[in-house]
Amino acid sequence: MADAAVSDTKAQRVLVAADKFKGSLTAVEVAERVTAGLRRVVPDLEVEALPVADGGDGTVAAAVAAGFERREVRVAGPLGDEVTAAFALRDGTAVVEMAEASGLQRLPAGVFAPLTASTYGSGELLRAALDAGARTIVFGVGGSATTDGGAGMLSALGARFLGAQGEPVPPGGGGLADLATADLSSLDPRLTEIELVLASDVDNPLTGPKGAPAVYGPQKGASPDDVAALDAALAHFAKVLEESAGSKAAEYAASPGAGAAGGIGYGALLLGARFRPGIEVMLDVLGFAPALERADLVITGEGSLDEQTLHGKAPAGVAAAARAADKEVVAVCGRLALPPETLGRAGFRRVYPLTDAEPDVAKCIAEAGPILERVAERIAGDFLT
């Protein structure tokens, strides 16, 4: 475990604000297991659980755990088949997670559709949030199966994308190569009356070496030829939009966050969204600040604590906020790939990887819950007794 020093003071109230262990435990389950382990050592310990997410998959679940109402709606999946997707609603604020409709999780096992997967269902989810009376929509993007620049989403909200003969272009990023005209004049007028926040942990532009196809396309099954085709199609998409929507279309394509989730960030910016780091938005929405104020010790974490963690992932955001409030932070994780000095600079007092308790990685993944409870017992011994 990183940093052998233990706390001189004993915490009275613990806040568990961890993300999911992808493939093993949801954020809610992480909080439950950590709480169980802590209370095995300190039975009457006050523990507040606040599962967190950074805008990617698991964001709606984190909002529901924080008291939002779960709403379900039938929408189009990335291949056009109907799926049941959820969003969260409380006091006029909706949390919409694009992965619920258009995520890799919605594809059959082993199936990818890099050129044809569409974000149409994500637009239907946004429309459902509008129908539910949302005045603020936090649009969490990540984990997408799509690289269509948000064209499908915009179509579901009233935009029209037509080929040379006046026919709708095929769904997916590949179909945008055939785009001749783009018409945004019939977008749902309610979009101008709400606050739309684009919540993402990536700041890539739409196209180019750091754009959506080049950086994230291979994760979605795109071959090198597919990546080149998608990059050209999205550049063409932005060019056609510039002709109909003006110079802002080009500005948005180069803006941070435009390349998020296969370019759906670009579509959201065209709708007037304001881009913010996903974890910052979610901590605000979930009520992290008052929970932090009540806590003496904060426990955060995620499946893999690595270099990516430091670039906008949930544990880094929790640690930064806790450090600013002069609160002690420790982390749990399945795998640790950061040196102690880096962890210290990021605000982590100590990190407890499951592999310290069980060196067999396969067993850590398969039995993450019980092992995490044992790790939490060690945290209790180090910080609470």
UniProtKB/TrEMBL annotation:
Keywords tagged on the record: Kinase, Transferase
UniProt keyword Kinase, yes or no: yes
Pfam family, one: Gly_kinase
GO function terms (MF aspect): glycerate kinase activity
Coiled coil segments of this chain: none
BP GO terms, sorted: organic acid phosphorylation
Cited PANTHER family: GLYCERATE KINASE
UniProt family annotation: Belongs to the glycerate kinase type-1 family.
Protein name (Swiss-Prot/TrEMBL): Glycerate kinase
Species this chain originates from: Streptomyces chartreusis NRRL 3882
Name of the gene: glxK_1
